[in-house]
Design a protein that fits this description.
Helix content is about 75%, strand content about 0%. With about 200 residues, the chain is mainly α.
């Protein structure tokens, strides 16, 4: 998962929006695996970035209090994380910068894929996760279309190129994903993720 200390390095609107997606992916992961302390950390970091982008009110206290009061309760953790995303999604949709949701969504997907490949490495639910990764072609294509319609910049064009290279790997897969294809996807996802987190 991404270091929360890196948050202060993101100065542009684009880098903040993209890394809000990255931290959002980490927040989801923390919820799924009942990591309460990590969830609070990523919740705070995500909220700070959302506030800096002007897309969310300071409502983190309510969520953090609920997490602290229900430590060890995975169902509550997942519910709080879901509600946080729903609220931020509302503010994203109301934003005057209509590209922000695209960047947050795309980077969140990249982080989810990145964490998924790590789960496969650890052999935790490896077959199920690998199947999910195999079935991400449609989601990737949708993200690419959104990126193509977003405002172009040198950074966004670079990410779009990386996503299109990843799509070309998926297009070459017929039926079951080979180990070689999986490793290629893993490598390209990691490159894209590292590019975003180092902006």
């Amino acid at each position: 998962m991404h270091l929360t200390s890196k948050r202060q390095d993101y100065n542009s609107t684009l880098s903040k929006a993209l890394n809000l997606g990255i931290y959002g992916g980490d927040l989801s992961y923390s919820g799924l695996f009942a990591k309460h302390e990590a969830a609070i950390k990523y919740l705070v970091t995500s909220q700070i970035l959302a506030d800096e982008l002007g897309i969310g009110p300071a409502f983190q206290g309510e969520f953090i209090l609920r997490l602290e009061e229900n430590a060890g309760n995975k169902d509550t953790l997942l519910r709080v994380v879901s509600e946080f995303f729903l609220k931020n999604d509302e503010y994203l949709k109301e934003s005057t910068n209509q590209d922000l949701p695209i960047y947050v969504l795309a980077a969140g997907w990249v982080e989810g894929m990145y964490l998924g490949t790590k789960i496969v490495d650890d052999k935790i639910n490896a077959i199920g996760v690998r199947n999910i990764i195999t079935n991400q072609r449609d989601a990737l294509q949708n993200i690419i279309v959104l990126f193509q319609n977003a405002k172009s910049s040198e950074t966004s064009e670079k990410i779009l190129t990386m996503l299109e290279e990843l799509e070309s790997v998926y297009e070459g897969i017929e039926g079951e994903m080979s180990e070689e294809d999986f490793l290629t996807i893993k490598s390209k996802i990691e490159l894209t993720r590292n590019f975003i987190t180092q902006l």
